Amino acid sequence: MPKVVDHDARRREIIGVVWRLVAEEGIQSVTTRRIAEAAGFANGALLYYFPNKDAVLIAAFQHIFDSTNTRADKAEGDRRGLAGLRTLCLEIMPLDDDRLTEARLAITFWQQALNSPEKAEMHAGFMNRWRVEMGARLTEAVEGGEIGELPSVGAVVDELISMLMGLQVLGVLSPKEATPERQLAQLDEFFARLRG
Predict the structure, then answer these.
(1) What DSSP letter does each residue of 59-105 carry, written as one string?
(2) Per-residue pLDDT tens for 57-106?
(3) Residue 28 per-residue DSSP state
């Protein structure tokens, strides 16, 4: 009887290998040959799941976004208002090794998106989904009396997204300056200004 293969599980396993390679060897090591070797596959077998390196990186970036949202959904506490907004921010920020690896992959994806309308559109879609969620949490915070009326919810969301993406870059490129403590202090200051 032929062996039954869970193809979705294999794809997740390959994405996990990509993560490990990025964390241990750097993004330059992520070639189809190296991924196949690290996963214990023949190079041709990897192509059954992903046609090329580009497809693996797209899947890995999708995984980052999904993982961030899943962690935020599973976090303890209230997911509404400022508490919910803070929970999402904490899952985006590169505060530990896993989220730092996510940031490394995100930066690599951004660099590729500069020359790929498909990747740029994918990234814009992810950012828009976060913008919608952040806007909803801010609106809840206003309606719940946690903060006063905002002249522009959209402008506050744009500021927050810019800060979070900047922290991802700084966490990767300037880890001595962008320590978890300094990142959290910056987030706390942002929330203090919201509360007035």
Answers:
(1) HHHHHHHHHHHHHHHHSSS--SHHHHHHHHHHHHS--SHHHHHHHHH
(2) 888 889 889 989 999 988 877 789 999 999 999 999 999 998 998 898 88
(3) G
